[in-house]
Design a protein that fits this description.
Layout lengths: L8 E7 L8 E2 L3 E2 L12 E5 L17 E4 L5 E5 L10 E4 L4 H12 L3 E5 L15 E3 H10 L5 H8 L3 E4 L18 E5 L2 E10 L17 H11 L15 E7 L8 E2 L5 E3 L1
Length: 268
């Protein structure tokens, strides 16, 4: 566990403005009314039957590159090396979601609807705050899977907040022994409650740029996660060990507060 000499610090903030697509590291992020980060998962893709079009459903989405302007006012969408020569297009963000839907419809060869929400589209609607992971935890995953470099591990697990100055799996301290336990902490001026260890989906085994699946990833990850579970991790919260990062809740009182790299994390 951490000591006064190794204060946890916020190392990076990553937004995923379009759900399932590329991230952008930002110098600051504002807490939205829902408790998430403003402009994070602000667009979500749907098919006409109302189902999400995301990495869980279609590996093809990994082929799309989304590059954002530094001020996040535009996004450029492209498909490198696509045989169909789908044109690269730049759209105003987040206002031009209907225009962008036409581009995605061409790529997926089906009608795509894009919905925009100020509150984003979190996977966990109860613990809708940003997910937290430590740099050391990601580095441990890279040791388990030597073909995965650190930046790729970040893209595979898609956490919003990364902390350093702590050992691997330190973020397991941020949730309690059961669902009724409340672990409170602050990052900078923002108050958080830890919720649970984040269950992973079919996305982490895939190369985030190609969609290629790494055979045996989930089984090996699960075995090693269990065998290396540190003493501070609340084992009762692990009904299975295919879990990495901590889900959080952020109260409405924190709306419009900012997070910035370098902010300290302090347990209450």
């Amino acid at each position: 566990m951490s000591s006064p000499q190794s204060l946890p610090l916020l190392a990076d903030i990553r937004l995923y403005p379009i759900k399932s697509l590329d991230p952008i590291s930002v110098p600051e992020a504002r807490i939205s009314p829902s408790g998430g980060l403003a402009l994070d998962r602000a667009w979500a893709l749907y098919s006409v039957d109302g189902k999400w079009v995301n990495g869980k459903r279609t590996p093809a989405i990994h082929l799309i590159r989304a590059n954002y302007s530094p001020d996040l006012r535009t996004v450029t969408l492209s498909v490198p090396n696509d045989r169909r020569n789908i044109p690269t297009r730049t759209f105003d963000f987040p206002t031009a979601h209907e225009d962008a839907a036409e581009w995605f419809s061409v790529f997926f060869e089906q009608q795509i609807i894009i919905r925009h929400s100020e509150n984003g589209f979190p996977d966990d609607t109860i613990a809708s705050g940003p997910t937290i992971v430590s740099t050391a935890s990601l580095e441990s995953v890279c040791e388990w899977f030597p073909t995965i470099p650190l930046e790729e591990a970040r893209r595979r697990f898609r956490a919003s907040l990364e902390i350093n100055g702590v050992p691997a799996w330190w973020e397991d301290q941020l949730f309690g022994e059961d669902e009724r336990s409340v672990i409170r902490f602050q990052i900078g001026e923002v108050n958080f409650e830890g919720s649970n260890p984040c269950a992973r989906c079919p996305v982490p085994p895939r190369n985030p740029l190609t969609g290629e699946n790494l055979d045996g990833f989930q089984k090996r990850f699960t075995q090693l996660r269990e065998s290396t579970l540190p003493p501070w991790s609340p084992r009762p919260r692990f009904d299975h060990f295919y879990r990495l990062s901590t889900n959080t809740r952020v109260a409405p009182t924190e709306t419009n507060k900012f997070l910035r790299p370098g902010d300290p994390l302090r347990l209450s």
